[in-house]
Amino acid sequence: MNFTKILCSLSIGILSLSAQQGHLNEALKYADPFYGNAGTDIPPAKGVAAAWNWEKAQQGNTHPGPQMPFGMVSIIPYTGAYPTGYGANKKTFTGKAQYFDKYKDAAYGFTHMQQSGTGTIGIYYNFLRVSPTTNYNKETRKTRFKMNEQNAHPGYFNCTIAENDVKVELTASQKVGFHRYHIPANMESPQISIDFSEGGLDTREDNVRNVKAQKESETLLTGEFNHIGFNYYFAVKSSVSFKNGSFYHVIGERPERSKGNNKKRKVVIPNPDPEKSTDKAEIKINKLTRKNSRMFYLDYVFDAEPGSNIELKIAFSFRSVEQAKANLMSAPNSFDEARSQAESTWEQCLTRLDYKAKDERDKKLFYSNLYHSLVKPSICDNESPFWEDEVFVTDFSTLWDVYKTQIPLLVKYYPEYGSKVIKGMINAMDTHGYFPCGYQKCDPKNMKKFDGQCTGMEWVTLAYAYKHKGKLGGIDWKKALKNADKFAQMDRVQEILKNGHAEGLSNTHTLDVSSAFAAICFIAKGEGLQSLYDKYAEHRNIWQKVYDSETGLLKEGDYYEGTQWNYSFRPHFAMEERVKLAGGKEKFTELLDTFFGFKDIEAGTVSPDGIEGFPRQLRKFRFEGLNNECDMEAPYAYQWSSKPERTQEVIKAVMKYQFQPGPNGIPGNNDSGGTSSWWVLNAIEDFPLVENFED
């Protein structure tokens, strides 16, 4: 299957359709929701870029689903593919993308809430699957249908279902997904099915737990479920009555059986046939086995009139059913109103930055990268299950991926959103004692999953925001600093301060802790808290413990998704001292020239001409060229070298050879906008060196 050509033709169709819609401005025409949805397929790199190493999977992992900027709700055609639920991607950790043939343009229905650009994040959402169908039964309830004519622009998606010619339109407000189904006049026995038990990916048993739903009126369904220890509440409003509507649900028993050393355990066994009811249904299941988790389901099915248009509004809350209903009531009344609001909001966001594109390619890349930089994290005002009515921000997937680029973009250029992100982070720090690297919708225990990536980068983020505090209203910085002592007393931080490193963790955590204390001191000094500054000023110098003065690099060891080379050129607050430790400016420059491949080109060990089909995974000690985020700021280390002009030489090579328009155009996982925002910030020539504080 030539999936690349299929997806590229899809993207071309999107742009041509947008051009026909006169109400769309240039930004909405060129911002491509399909950008980076599939595997990377770009021409061979030339020049110094030919020497770079691609450590990670070569696929962008984005999705085309409509949502508001930083919206709580998005909607996609659900194929079950990795990692968003859209497309045909297989789970890939390294190398070129692989695809499921059976997933191509084939969906089960349309689901809500997705990750964006991540890898194996472990939490994939995709709730409340809506499917136009006919002759619903337990065999047909999860039948794939072909999608024709997929089209999208920011805030809007449409397609046509090949088997029954139903036209589907999707849009969203901040907390509500909007569906519109155009039922053909000649369609026999049309129905709409809503699966309340859906969750996760097709290849991962990740259904929701303890789901219940009830019909409150002839046009309103409400209910709740739990997913990975996190409660969701929903309200579904239909524009038509639920004609002949019924719940169908499979429940189970928990017989005991022996296993191994005569220990007993309870195993849930599904009943062979679903139960049917008209007013409510419930499945009380906490733990499922891998084999039977997909056997339990709870659907609601109602008849549709041939030739009718059906609109569904599906609202979510993390607090209560009553709040979900309130979110429903405060959302736009109709699909068209919601679409207009979404398009208008996206237009305002996409036209904010002052950028003059050089050509058509440049326009497509600028607006598409900017769009995918404004999708995450999810801002959920007054929805926190952990604290009272304050902003709640989730889906930092992960902070390690976005603290250097995407969050600074929001803080400086989108302060109305950036201030909420910072407030949400501080609220989480107040509640959990620190900010988990993978702060997602799950119970606090599962939030710790990605803490091995970094330590204390929330403080670096806060310090960058503090530099721009004049744009960010309502942030109590002294209150934020009350978390400094909690950070300093963390076991991991204490171990690093005592030994120079933490057992079992990369040396980068020592750099993290050093920058975190530098950030704390920076804010404390600005707030006039001299005693706090004095308390932690010395801790900033811990970074020196992990550099090798003989090599000029970080000490050898295990490093996350790279080697010591990838992390040795991380600009921080003490770069003059770091250059001296490397042996001086000339030695530092020589190390940089080796890392970025200039020496490979000069020596003739790498051809600068680019070779078709040349494997990109050969040089483990070279720059990863935005295939990953670990060394994305390293080009700026040349500012402390004897060849500062090479910063721009490297950046221009990345922008020219590592990105291209279309579904195959992002060089690696976009990771919640971490990669796309790098392109945007360099395009407007304002890349933030977030750890390079000035005391």
TrEMBL record:
Residues 323-684 form the Glycosyl hydrolase family domain. Residues 30-317 form the Glycosyl hydrolase family 92 N-terminal domain. SUPFAM superfamilies: Six-hairpin glycosidases. GO terms for cellular component: cytosol. One of its GO terms (molecular function) is peptide-N4-(N-acetyl-beta-glucosaminyl)asparagine amidase activity. It comes from the Bacteria. Signal peptide: none annotated. Residues 255-278 are annotated as: Disordered. One of its GO terms (biological process) is glycoprotein catabolic process. Pfam families: Glyco_hydro_92, Glyco_hydro_92N. InterPro entries: 6-hairpin_glycosidase_sf (IPR008928), GH-type_carb-bd (IPR014718), GH92_N (IPR041371), Glyco_hydro_92 (IPR012939), PNGase (IPR050883). This is Alpha-1,2-mannosidase.
